[in-house]
Design a protein that fits this description.
Number of strands: 11
CATH superfamily of the largest domain: Response regulator
Radius of gyration: 21 Å
CATH class of the largest domain: Alpha Beta
Helix content: 25-40%
Strand content: 25-35%
Strand order of the largest sheet: 6-7-8-11-10-9
């Protein structure tokens, strides 16, 4: 079995290895990544059976990994455990349930709770998701709006930050541009420079080879117009390969700036 551990703490890998050794699983392969972006980048190559993710250190980035996994063959049976050294808020537990996290450890990897949960997953793999009632609130996942959960992972540029998005009109080939107001997991919130430029483009129109520039990063994306009552959204057709790693990096830098301030 292959396990990915996402944590900056060396002690965490020692705790996991001790658990594996005690269960007679010293032959299992354990890969530790100190940065979430590196872990996400290597999931396709490793195809782990289990991912242990430090919620204490990286409370936001695991949500960007969920849609990324959907585009990778061989990850449908992968298990995901979030762990923390303190209580995780109920709102975050609700999101974890909705996004089908398999278990949550709230007492650290050195705790009896961690041994019990990992033991159950190892015994039952492959099997049904395990959400111990004592650790995860028993609320039906149906009551949570998946879109609301996914939209909680959002990068909003500052007023001084320039994010350029240009595209060609699919009929006239005129260059279209506007202001990016937010970057979501699978879409871009966009305000056209001239609303008339999009007046004759219906909902669902595909805009190919659009150019997104953020700082030193340049991406080429296929976008589909998605008009709602309140927003003009551009749905990203293949966010997993380039866009999601960049979004993860932006969120990571934003979180670091907040911690430094």
């Amino acid at each position: 079995m292959k396990i990915i551990l996402v944590s900056p703490e060396i002690a965490d890998s020692e705790h996991v290895q001790t658990i594996l050794d005690n269960f007679g699983r010293s032959g299992d392969m354990l890969f530790q990544y100190h940065h979430p972006l590196k872990a996400i980048d290597n999931i396709e190559e490793i195809l782990p059976d289990l991912v242990l993710w430090s919620h204490s250190d990286f409370p936001r980035h695991w949500k960007t990994m969920i849609p990324y996994l959907e585009g990778i063959e061989g990850t449908s049976s992968m298990k995901l455990i979030l762990y923390s050294h303190s209580k995780i808020g109920q709102a975050e537990i609700d999101k974890a349930q909705t996004l089908k996290v398999d278990a949550i450890i709230q007492q650290g990897l050195s705790s009896p709770q961690a041994v019990d949960i990992i033991d159950k997953l190892l015994v039952d793999m492959p099997g049904d998701a395990i959400l111990p009632p004592s650790d995860v609130a028993e609320k039906p996942a149906e009551r949570f709006d998946m879109n609301r959960v996914l939209n909680s992972v959002r990068y909003i540029p500052s007023k001084s930050e320039s994010i350029q998005l240009t595209m060609s009109h699919p009929v006239s080939l005129k260059i279209l541009s506007g202001r990016v107001t937010a970057l979501d997991l699978d879409s871009i919130k966009f305000t056209p420079a001239k609303s008339d430029d999009f007046a004759n483009l219906p909902d669902g129109t595909l805009l190919q080879k659009c150019h997104l520039r953020i700082r030193e990063h340049k991406l080429q994306l296929d976008l589909k117009i998605k008009i709602t009552a309140d927003n003009f959204d551009l749905a990203i057709q293949d966010p997993a390969r380039e866009y999601l790693p960049l979004l993860t990096q932006l969120l990571d830098e934003e979180n670091k700036d907040k911690n430094d301030s």
